[in-house]
Write a structure and sequence with these properties.
411 residues, alpha+beta, seven-stranded antiparallel sheet, binds 1-methyl-L-proline, binds FE2/S2 (inorganic) cluster, binds fe (iii) ion
């Protein structure tokens, strides 16, 4: 059954300021439509340049039906390919990450260069033309140490993303950092519930005792209202900008991504139990002042981030099914920072490991209640949940524009 018309009608009738109708959070066909309309068509954050520093380093991931491999070439460029062999379709790279001079398919050893071209195919007919069977390219861009890919045949223009976020990210020099720790949790809830939860701090005081020692629960920090009228925030922006750290709240007009450098509570500098730095070696020599707070970057639908003076935490959201979402968290530190000397993993990761687990429980209980036939969309708090409304508006408009655009092409 084609549900496109139902979805379009529901989205157009969506009551502003209210959560979505039940099927958007639990239905398999609605989920499939999210995948086809957003996830297979727009830019997605997948990982960091510094995870694949050398030629032949690669990592893999699964986006819905698509296995993808991201690899650094001999020319140092990072490329992305569909991880499906051009012989009979076996996954070429079967590990989560690795290093290899060439990409060799384990099934019959067809061998691809790091630029995706097929260089060796054992005992094929003489007429076989290798040049026609290179790995299929996936659009790939890097910005400020972050790798983005787009699975669509034609990718939307990446320039507006780069233009806005690069100046805010650049001082942190994340392309030459290292991942000190990472983990992935699977939350039993739709990807949009993960985002809705992330876009407000209405729940913080009651649920995040560790995070609330350093992160302000005020809606001006998390929300999307800009906060220029908050004297603490505007003073923070002025001080940081004087030190060449772009800081002012800036959101793209279509609402898909925003940057802002927000102060932490009092004299906190990092997400630790006492607010002191978790890493002795600062993340970047280009940051010349202390107490820079957190540079908040989100880009729907895959990533939110906190860039601090001593480390950065990146979050990657990947849907697994209508009611399961993987959230991967990475802690990045200066490449020369030494574990056990400059930082302790437990101390570095404690606050966000606790916070992530608390958010996982929230999302799962949220999903639980939404499965009830008695669930109906409820009102968001104007004061605290402006960010959630903004996410839902972005989602609604994005879906409506794409679905209508597709209909127009067909007619
Ligand atoms: O990670 C975040 O940015 C959000 C902000 C408030 C709640 N959550 C922790
Ligand atoms: Fe890859 Fe046969 S499927 S070599
Ligand atoms: Fe939370």
């Amino acid at each position: 059954m084609d549900i496109r018309n139902d979805v379009l009608r529901q989205l157009k009738n969506h009551r502003p300021g209210y959560s979505l109708e039940q099927p958007f959070y639990i239905d398999k066909d609605y989920f499939q439509l999210d995948m086809e309309t957003i996830w297979y068509r727009d830019w997605l954050f997948v990982g960091h340049d510094c995870e694949i520093p050398k030629a032949g380093n690669y990592f893999t991931l699964q986006i819905g039906d698509y296995p993808v491999v991201i690899v650094r070439g001999k020319d140092k460029l990072i490329r992305a390919f569909h991880n499906t062999c051009r012989h009979r379709g076996h996954r070429v790279c079967t590990q989560e990450r690795g290093a290899s001079a060439k990409l060799v398919c384990p099934y019959h050893q067809w061998t691809y260069d790091l630029d995706g071209s097929l260089v060796f195919a054992r005992q094929m007919d003489e007429s076989f033309d290798k040049s026609k069977f290179g790995m299929k390219h996936v659009h790939c861009e890097t910005v400020g140490g972050y790798v983005f890919i787009c699975l669509a045949n034609e990718a939307p223009d990446f320039a507006p993303v780069r233009e806005k976020i690069e100046p805010y990210m650049a001082p942190h020099r994340l392309w030459e950092a290292k991942v000190a720790h990472q983990n992935t949790i699977v939350e039993k809830g739709n990807w949009k519930l993960v985002w809705e939860n992330n876009r407000e701090c209405y729940h913080c005081a009651a649920n995040h005792p560790e995070l609330c020692r350093t992160y302000p629960e005020a809606p001006s920090a998390t929300g999307v209202q800009g906060a220029a009228d908050d004297p603490i925030i505007s003073e923070h922006w002025a001080r940081c900008e004087a030190a060449n750290l772009p800081s002012k709240f800036d959101m793209h007009p279509d609402g898909q991504f925003r940057v802002a450098r927000m102060p932490l509570i009092e004299d906190a500098e990092s997400y630790t139990m006492d607010g002191k730095r978790a890493v002795r070696r600062a993340l970047s020599d280009d940051v010349t002042i202390s107490h820079i707070g957190t540079m908040l970057l989100f880009h729907y639908p895959t990533t939110w981030n906190h860039m601090l003076v001593d480390h950065t935490i990146s979050f990657r959201v990947l849907p697994i099914s209508a009611e399961e979402t993987a959230v991967t968290t990475k802690w990045l530190v200066h490449k020369d920072a030494v574990e056990g000397v400059d930082y302790d993993i437990e101390q570095l990761t404690h606050v966000w490991n606790m916070t992530n687990d608390q958010d996982r429980q929230i999302v799962e209980e949220n999903a639980f209640g939404i499965r009830s036939p008695a669930y109906e969309p409820g009102p968001y708090s104007e004061l605290h949940e402006g960010g959630v409304m903004q996410f839902v508006e972005w989602y609604t408009k994005f879906m409506v524009d794409r679905l209508q655009g597709d209909q127009a092409k067909l007619s």
